[in-house]
Write a structure and sequence with these properties.
By secondary structure, the protein is of the alpha/beta class. It has nine helices and eleven strands.
């Protein structure tokens, strides 16, 4: 799923704001209905700027508290707050509150930064890290391509981590620059390389076309997983190990 599909112009314009650490996040204190092919869905955000029905208070309000991190599948693009897996989880756990820190279109690197910025200031009993397989590519880019109100390419910078031979990770690109349009004579910023551009083009043709192309070509959409020596795999692994050790 590409950035345009996850955050089309109306969604980005109504729901997101610039954030100097993450690049962007939800506008705090929202309660708005978003038009959608399924009839629309309700988005509510808390005071911290996440799609969560609970405030991230320092103390738990119930016996247990679970924190959930991820991208649009966790934030719940396309469905109302109460229909997400985090809400279903809360409904099935007695005396437990589940705080949703999902951020649409984000990489594991941004999700880890959300944990570092917010979770370490509050009480919790468990953490769920929901890693979409495509996060492996999002972690290595410095920009995501969205669209402005007129449909023109809008480049949204993001933070990233540099990986040392020792396995240490160092945060780069903070404070994150504001979103920008490139000049006509400037090359487009690298948002994932040639393979990423090819995937976006095929994805734009629809799921049936994409499935046929992948079957005919035996195309591996995420070659970073083919080798444990790939930089993207090493970086994803390092981020997760640092997160788990926290």
């Amino acid at each position: 799923m590409n950035a345009r599909a996850e955050a089309p112009p109306p969604l980005h314009r109504q729901l997101m704001q610039y954030d100097e650490l993450l690049g962007y996040r939800f506008v705090p204190g929202l309660k708005v209905r978003i038009p959608h092919e399924g009839g629309g869905y309700l988005v509510k955000t808390n005071g911290a700027g996440f799609r969560c029905n609970h405030e991230a208070t320092p103390r738990k309000s119930r016996a247990r508290r679970v924190l959930v991190f991820g991208d649009s599948y966790t934030a719940g693009d396309g469905v109302s707050n109460g229909k997400r897996y985090s809400d279903v989880l809360e409904d099935n756990l007695s005396d437990t509150e589940v705080l949703n820190f999902g951020l649409s279109g984000s990489g594991t690197d941004q999700q880890y930064l959300i944990y570092r910025e917010f979770a370490q200031k509050i009480e919790f009993d468990a953490v769920v890290i929901s890693v979409l397989v495509e996060n492996i590519q999002r972690n290595v880019v410095k920009h995501r391509e969205w669209a402005d109100r007129e449909g023109a390419a809008l480049y949204v910078p993001k933070p990233w981590f540099e990986l040392a031979d020792s396995g240490a990770i160092a945060l780069q690109g903070v404070p994150v620059p504001q979103p920008f349009h490139r000049e006509a004579d400037q090359p487009a910023p690298d948002a994932g390389g040639l393979l990423s551009k090819a995937r976006k083009m095929v994805n734009g043709m629809g799921p049936e076309f994409k499935d046929k192309v992948q079957k005919l070509t035996r195309f591996q959409p995420l070659p970073e997983y083919d080798s444990a020596d790939s930089h993207a795999w090493k970086l994803l692994r390092a981020i997760l190990l640092h997160w788990i050790r926290k």
